[in-house]
Design a protein that fits this description.
It is built from 32 helices and no strands. By secondary structure, the chain is mainly alpha-helical.
């Protein structure tokens, strides 16, 4: 590796040879991103564990689980930096480990509880955790063929697990053979604490001299992504704070609390990604090679832990603040709840200050100013309601940002110039774009709640109508951010994205009641349509402002505004009719909705194919690839959420594992499609043809891929065999919907391939056979149906893998 922090093959860092390729990359692979999505779900499911305990026990037990989960994630961050996890069969291994982590996450609420019925939660958690830890070490061992020095480092990496494994197993098994009481609980906690200490001390086991980073960029991006996904999950926790069924009325206090919570999370996002993250990466690149690994371990593996823990506390505090009675006020907003919310922000900022000091030897004024304000305002906040406490916190953090943009603007601009080179690197998606994607996908999956409230063909149709509007809005923002990228527009882009996040979050909160009349609250249909209109008009106004000096592109905005305006007018008409009649769904309102969708979404053809101008085809493709992967990851997470209520039965456990396997097989089916479309782009010479391909294959056909995933997510949530959770008729309807989702997904993937003018043979033909046979699984028990569908999809890939581009070529796209 060069002293400048470029990228190097890992032969010199960890040994060469073997069938597992050493790392030479500089970016995070899709398989790692998917794994991170599941890990973050596990982190945030800790709040479920904490909610069932007193404040002291919640912090103690939750802290121990977070320490274990972070240690497991850190192992995969280390492995991904040394070994290409997108080569050969390693993506399959990563998806298998993601399934293990999902099962660990499902068992988290029971990790310190033994139920007489169901599986042993502590045993499931420990076995799953150890499986994930062993998985990362096996990959390292497979890549250890090289110098004796590298092999010795690989062997030493097993030492901490060898010490912690018997301790964790003893913590699970030993208390059952002791008299019940406080003594057995204390022994269990002591064993877990000692195991954690042993495991963390093992971070030094491989030896700093034998482990060298193969890519500083990958290492920094991996930690940036886990932070970004955690921030996104914090936003999603705001939307889900009032439950998953959308039964409670929506009040002004609910909406105000959501906006205030978003301000808090937006500040935490800004504090990390504005200066600290790029400055830390640049500092690590300039660090001498011998010192680089030590600094990477301290600043990233260790000091990112308090930031993640702080976000979990913030999410828990926001749930307590927002998830109360129908009026939007918690029944019991206690001093402990306030301490968790404010303490989470403090812990996050303390970790950020320590991170900046360890990397750039600078104490950031913003985090310190924020720490002081939060600490000072915590005293008066204790006498206020939950909404009042949240208001003070949001205003204080907003003042920190204002101070940076006014009184401290000269220093702020100087720091921005220092990290400009790092920030300006080409990536598939910037942090603000991924932040927006996560909130959009949350809104996508809220569509499944509409279907749950109306479990019928009509309900599914209504949900897909809302999904179509959300998708078209996301497509337009993707077009916008892809077109106007540049340092001169960075501040405008961030402001627009944050405003769009607030609007989509509001829409997502109200979405379950789009076609329902819930008394005691604001009219949800009006909130949904108004939020949609605002987010679409924001896009058009922002596009117009940025392109005001480009006459050609400005004319495109004018053309796009016509169908948008007509569609919004029709939606407002539908809401007006619903308010006047008291019925959210009449034939006339349904007609208005249908016309609005056809006109607005179909407007992509009105502007003409030559006007679908793309500055970067690879970024356009990458954005759609990522939204599909995030949707798939969130479908996995929604399945885990649906199965999180203890006790966990063996049948539920098996169904969750099979569900994750099926969704992994669906992603595997998509692999290769984007690369053949990319090849088709290179064959086209006219901008009109390239624009038509971008519009057809991505803006429109990818919608049906997302539709398939949403239908599958709904089907999985309603067919989980939880006692008392659903009726037999609902479970059957869910299984039918799941099968339809598989068929829609496979046919959409086939149409994308066909639009690229590629021969339909081999794997594509096998996928069509699976789609044709999938309806037969409706008559099987759900577990057998999931297993049959997953096996059929994997078999279709394996039997015809030579007809598609090599997997390592496909997955070489970076974040």
């Amino acid at each position: 590796m060069s002293s400048g922090g470029g990228e190097t093959a890992s032969e010199g860092a960890f040994g060469a040879g073997g069938r597992v390729k050493a790392a030479t990359h500089g970016g995070v692979t899709r398989a790692e991103f998917f794994l991170d999505l599941v890990f973050v779900f596990a982190f945030f499911n800790v709040t479920h564990l904490m909610s069932e305990r007193s404040a002291t026990d919640a912090l103690l037990f939750g802290g121990l689980v977070v320490l274990l989960l972070w240690r497991s994630w850190a192992g995969y961050a280390w492995v991904g930096n040394l070994v290409r996890l997108d080569r050969n069969g390693l993506p399959v291994a990563v998806f298998a480990m993601a399934t293990a982590i999902l099962l660990v996450a499902v068992a988290i609420p029971e990790v310190f509880v033994e139920h007489s019925a169901g599986l042993s939660g502590p045993l499931v958690f420990v076995v799953g955790f150890l499986t994930a830890r062993v998985g990362s070490l096996l990959i390292i061992s497979a890549a250890r063929r090289g110098t004796e020095r590298s092999s010795a480092a690989a062997r030493r990496a097993w030492l901490p697990l060898a010490g912690s494994l018997p301790l964790l197993l003893s913590a699970v098994l030993l208390p059952a053979h002791l008299p019940s009481g406080r003594g057995a609980e204390v022994l269990q906690l002591v064993l877990v604490v000692v195991a954690i200490v042993v495991d963390y001390l093992g971070l030094r086991a491989p030896g700093i001299g034998t482990w060298q980073l193969t890519s500083v960029r990958h290492w920094a991006e991996r930690h940036n992504l886990i932070m970004l996904i955690a921030l996104g999950e914090t936003i999603i926790s705001i939307g889900t704070s009032r439950g998953l069924l959308g039964d409670d009325p929506i009040t002004w206090s609910v909406l105000a609390g959501a906006v205030l919570a978003l301000v808090v999370v937006a500040f935490l996002w800004w504090a990390y990604f504005d200066i600290a993250a790029p400055a830390g990466e640049a500092a690590l690149e300039s660090t001498p090679r011998r010192e680089r690994s030590r600094r990477a371990r301290d600043a990233y593996t260790l000091l990112h832990l308090p930031m993640i823990a702080g976000l979990i506390l913030v999410a828990f505090g926001l749930k307590r603040a927002l998830g109360g009675t129908p009026s939007g006020h918690p029944e019991n907003w206690t001093m402990a709840d306030l301490a968790v919310l404010y303490g989470g922000v403090v812990l996050y900022l303390v970790g950020l200050v320590a991170f900046e000091w360890r990397t750039v030897r600078r104490i950031g004024r913003g985090p310190v100013f924020g720490l002081v304000l939060v600490a000072v305002l915590a005293a008066p906040a204790r006498y206020l309601t939950a909404l009042g406490s949240l208001t003070i916190l949001a205003v204080a953090l907003f003042c920190v940002v204002v101070a940076h943009l006014t009184a401290l603007r000269h220093r702020h601009r100087e720091l921005h110039r220092a990290v400009a080179a790092t920030v300006g690197r080409e990536v598939d998606a910037t942090p603000e774009e991924l932040f927006l994607d996560l909130v959009f996908v949350y809104a996508f999956l809220q569509v499944t709640v509409i279907m749950t409230r109306h479990p019928s063909v009509t309900g599914v149709t209504l949900g897909l109508a809302v999904l179509a509007l959300l998708w078209w809005s996301w497509v337009n923002y993707t077009w916008f951010t892809t077109t106007i990228r540049g340092p001169e527009n960075s501040l405008r882009l961030r402001l627009v994205v944050l405003a769009a996040v607030a609007l989509i979050l509001t829409l997502g909160i109200a979405a379950p009641q789009t076609f329902s009349d819930v008394s005691g609250g604001l009219p949800a249909p009006l909130i949904v349509v108004t939020s949609y209109a605002a987010v679409r008009l924001l896009h058009l106004a922002s596009f117009w402002w940025v392109l005001r000096h480009d006459i050609a592109l400005r004319s495109i905005v004018v053309r796009a505004a016509v169908p948008t305006g007509v569609g919004i007018a029709l939606l407002l008409s539908a809401v007006s009719i619903a308010l006047a009649t008291g019925d959210p769904l009449t034939p006339l309102t349904a007609l208005c909705w249908a016309a609005a969708i056809v006109i607005d979404v179909g407007g992509g053809y009105l502007i003409g194919s030559r006007n679908w101008r793309l500055r970067s085809v690879s970024r356009w493709m990458g954005r759609f690839n990522l939204i599909l992967l995030i949707a798939l990851g969130q479908a996995v997470i929604s399945t885990g959420i649906a199965a999180s209520d203890p006790p966990i039965s063996p049948s539920t456990f098996v169904t969750v594992a099979l569900s994750a396997t099926l969704l992994s097989a669906m992603w595997w089916t998509y692999v290769g499609t984007d690369i053949v479309v990319g090849q088709r782009f290179t064959e086209l010479t006219q901008s009109r043809q390239r624009g038509a391909l971008a519009r057809d294959a991505y803006a429109y056909l990818h919608l049906f891929l997302v539709v398939g995933l949403v239908l599958v997510a709904f089907g999985l949530r309603t067919t989980l065999p939880q006692q008392g959770r659903n009726s037999a008729s609902l479970a059957m309807f869910g299984q039918v919907t799941l099968t339809c989702g598989i068929v829609v997904y496979l046919l959409a993937d086939h149409l994308v391939w066909q639009r690229a003018r590629r021969r339909i043979a081999g794997r594509r033909a096998a996928n069509l056979v699976v789609a044709a046979l999938a309806p037969a699984t409706i008559f099987l028990p759900i577990q057998w149906a999931l297993a049959a569908l997953a096996l059929a999809l994997f078999a279709a890939h394996l039997l015809a893998r030579t007809s598609t581009p090599p997997l390592d070529t496909v997955l070489d796209h970076r974040m």
